[in-house]
Amino acid sequence: MEKLPKVAFPFIIVAVILIIVLSKSAVTINSGEAGVLFKTFGEGVVIDEPALGEGFHIVAPWNKVFVYEVRQQEITEKMNVLSSNGLDIKLEASVWFQPDFKNIGKLHQEKSEMYKERVLLPAIRSAARSVVGRYTPEQLYSSKRDAIQQEIFEETKKIVEDQYIQLNEVLVRDVTLPATIKDAIERKLKQEQESLEYEFRLITADKEAQKQIIEAQGKADANRILSASLNNMILQDKGIEATIKLAESPNSKVIVIGSGDSGMPIILGNQ
């Protein structure tokens, strides 16, 4: 086997060094990520320049790049909080958030990659305890869920808005009350519902009775007016008209004998 000439060894060493340097210098930022540059022999964390965006970058091999996910993320927290009357409530909430891209260098410098544990989670716990403490278990269980969710979001946002974190949404996923309290609330709600249904039936029945009274009164008034407008001459005239119509009918056979007390013909039979 032929040996390599001695002059080739320096080139090989240089090539190896270049490969090592390039491997240390090449940084790829993936989709949805950003890089924070740390200059070892400079000012440290670079905060006065934009973060490294997606793609391939070359940095000095003695510097470091800390990669952050800048897409919207979700973190779920389960916690115990107290209601306004001191009852222990279990609350589960999800937080939608992302780092502030423009200030990601400051976020790294002041909070580090542990910003979720050091800032976001304590903020959501504090806000949840503050908000839930204003409400009774009945309100937490039924009508105030949306209001509580919005208030927790607003209180958490106040805490993190100057911490280089963009808060997008807070979702209250579950509120768990003590079993005895939950059963008592459900019984109370059921009784209230039954009471409302009973009141509705009473109101409906009362309206129906009033309607019948009005209809009966209307019929009575109509009959009284009709009776007052009738006299013997009108009745006799109506009788004559009816008799003529019967006599003119081709399907009738009418026999009239004498007359009645009123002077009207008496109809004995027809076919």
Structural description of this entry:
This protein is of the alpha+beta class and 271 residues long. The protein folds into 3 domains: 8-69, no CATH class; 73-177, 2-Layer Sandwich (Tetrahydropterin Synthase, Chain A); 241-271, no CATH class. Helices cover 49% and strands 21% of the residues. It has 7 helices and 8 strands; from the N terminus they run αβββββββααααβαα. It has helices at 8-25, 104-110, 115-132, 137-141, 145-160, 179-229, 232-248, and strands at residues 26-29, 33-39, 44-45, 55-58, 64-69, 73-82, 88-99, 165-176. It has a 3-stranded antiparallel sheet. Strands 6-7-8 form a 3-stranded antiparallel sheet. Helix 3 crosses helix 5. It is elongated and about 145 Å long. The termini are far apart. The model has no long low-confidence stretch (mean pLDDT 78). It comes from Pseudalgibacter alginicilyticus. It is a single-pass membrane protein.
Task: Describe the structure concisely.
The chain has 271 residues and is α+β, with helices and mostly antiparallel strands. Helix content is 49%, strand content 21%.
